[in-house]
Amino acid sequence: MSANEPLLSVDNLSVRYGLGRGMTGRRRSFTAVRDVSFTIGSGRTLGLVGESGSGKSTIGRAILRLAPVSEGTVVFDGQDISGFGRQTPLSYRKDVQVVFQDPLSSLNPRQTVATIIGQTIARHRSLSRAALDKEVARALDDVGLSAFHGDRMASELSGGQRQRVAIARALSVRPKLIVCDEPVSALDVSTQSQVINLLMELQREYGISYLFIAHDLDVVRHVSHDIAVLYLGRMAESGPAEAVHGDPGHPYTHMLMASSLVTDPDEQAERSRLRRKLTGGKAEPPSPLDDKPGCPYQNRCRWATDLCRTETPRPVSLPLPQLPAAGSGERLVACHHAEEVRGSRTAA
After folding, report:
1. What is the average pLDDT score of the chain?
2. Is 73 exposed, middle or buried (0-12, 13-18, 19+ CB in 10 A)?
């Protein structure tokens, strides 16, 4: 990989699942992700945000080679991962790690923390028992846990401690990229902040890249350099984090911002009012199997016109807003009325 190439490049990715045969005997399929493109640079974080069912986790699974790449390419460190065939090289498993949403489900309850982390290290490095114990202690120290936690079972730990163990396991082999699939959504607010700050500290220290998957735009903005917004498997908007959050160009991004929880009850009530106005009271997205022509967000959008009902918008480049720390890079929005939507954050 040259200095100017991204660590990860996803180009026109589509993920399709077969649904068997219908009543007519024809084979049916469901497209979970459609024509999604983005890049992640070395030492940077891309926040992938959207509601449940938007295709976020499917993209993560495709990068981890746990879901099929039906169309498009996923290039990691200069190599197209589809060229691996049925067997994934051990080197790729080492370089691309994952932290799941529920650590209690991803950590073996019958093993100690030291065994869980040690098995991961031993799979990629041949070490003596003493050296392996030292590496386990180092991994625990990296995430702010004392060495004595290695003798405990995952079930004996708090939710925040379990997630730190999951991060330690991923970090222990010094990966280049970690897919964080809703890593804080199951934690309370104070623990969320601790885990997010930990991930950012580890990135600064080791230069790791993250694909940070979440549904809360405020959380994603805090941890990410760039943001990509997904809706029903399609890219709605992408660009530098402060640009997307501070001056959204897609109506769906507006709705996600209005959906973020805040502690002030008056502000929360105002966001709820704005959300109802933006969506016309239609809180739930349509069925992903209902592949209607036009913009997939048309039924929930206050800006929708006849053009939106007949023609699917393609991503167009918009200038970056004049905002502090707006960042640099390309700003893409898939909306026929992006210019009208911009600057309308409080419009209702």
Report:
1. 87
2. middle
